[in-house]
Amino acid sequence: xxxxxxxxxxxxxxxxxxxxxxxxxxxxxxxxxxxxxxxxxxxxxxxxxxxxxxxxxxxxxxxxxxxxxxxxxxxxxxxxxxxxxxxxxxxxxxxxxxxxxxxxxxxxxxxxxxxxxxxxxxxxxxxxxxxxxxxxxxxxxxxxxxxxxxxxxxxxxxxxxxxxxxxxxxxxxxxxxxxxxxxxxxxxxxxxxxxxxxxxxxxxxxxxxxxxxxxxxxxxxxxxxxxxxxxxxxxxxxxxxxxxxxxxxxxxxxxxxxxxxxxxxxxxxxxxxxxxxxxxxxxxxxxxxxxxxxxxxxxxxxxxxxxxxxxxxxxxxxxxxxxxxxxxxxxxxxxxxxxxxxxxxxxxxxxxxxxxxxxxxxxxxxxxxxxxxxxxxxxxxxx
Length: 383
Prior knowledge:
3-stranded antiparallel sheet
């Protein structure tokens, strides 16, 4: 039986009470049978959140078109409900009908991802979506954004995807993802466990990672440093009984250190969507469709409604307040100079000058076809 409005307000007050997290919340509900009774029985050290705060948040959600889904609501994701510290509530902007779609794969990776890494994440997400797999990610720069865009471009540009935020469901972070946020909320769902208005805080992102992994049947790590949040997501996925896939990379690339370690530790090696589908036992039932020849290989840098007229969205490394550096977009395999210009948002003169300085310092080499690559022995320069 669905909770009454009065009980929902009481639950909101309970979870908003300082010192009470999801695990304690569920223990209190089990003991006292209702949030109202739990609030009345709290020890003196707890100060319940005011009723007016809960009422204000529900009113704000209605104004912004955001839905509140309680853990016992049929629309609440069943896979998420199974973990011990499942959020008592999810704030959802967009479609609630996709929250229980299965199979689902989370795609995560570096924020300062390489151009090739973003392309691959976008392509894999595109192919998986066309094969009937729901893509879940965190709407961050780099790999997350690329995977969301690849998913939405699939199924004739109607593909759904879920973005799990480390902010309130009404707070867009990073701000440059405004268009992406709006597109996801129309085609799929933007969700968060955090109260509306919650701004970006470093401690919230590792916490939201358990939701990213729990919503999925498997997690794919495309690029990640050895101590990155993506590896936290992979560890949580293993603890939750999910499969973990990783894209192998060059041993001289710092962004490949995480995936390479996961593979050494037993993760499935994945170079394309077929590798993932075969493990998920979907390959025989679903056929991967070919990528249209409409410029989608550069999809990670373009809004869905402007792909055909080639309007680019610069994707910058996740370094707040710092100008992007050309070296952040280079790999040992080589990248086209025009792709660096497009992805960095720098003009061609700036890129040419930085490349010349890197070449004179012996850190890069020129390749045929106007490509440049990091020199493999310069591993320390890619960190």
